[in-house]
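Researcher: For the annotation table, I need structure tokens for MerR family transcriptional regulator. Please keep the output clean. Sequence:
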Amino acid sequence: MQTLTIQQVAQQTGLTVHTLRYYERNGLLEPVDRASSGHRRYSAQDIARIEFLTRLRATGMPIRQMQEFARLFRERPEAIGSRRKLLEAHEQQVQAHIQELRSNLEMIQWKIGYYKGLEARHQTDATDSYSEANERQKCLAAGRAFMLERALQQVDVEAEVEPQSNEASGSLHESKFQS
């Protein structure tokens, strides 16, 4: 079985040697096998775990949760459900963050389109007197319309998720719009 040195693993994963040692020292990784010289020798299984940890970290999972996941992993079959629940909770956070990023991206794209429109209008009509206050009001109104549309889309998504058989939740959903 081929193994890699800590330098090779650092190059392959993009982590620093310090981070790899930190992961091992703080229980994120099982103790790595050592050569007779005392140097770490990483197996393919070690590298797969490191790559998974890297993905968890890249999605914003705090080190403490990663440590909890590693602890549960060491418990083997008895903790499969707990590992799944931890990952499901993190998945929900990642999904919420993705949705927030999409919303922010849409606003940026709208703003880019708005500025392109301003540029086109000013290029075609050089005599147009630019009114900063007027343009600001238009921008605010368009921004409010955009945010209202986003809120309505979110309500539509929530309505799809709510159970259809529960009449109490349906009446609660309707009351949101009546007030």
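Researcher: And a one-line annotation?
Model: The chain has a mean pLDDT of 82.
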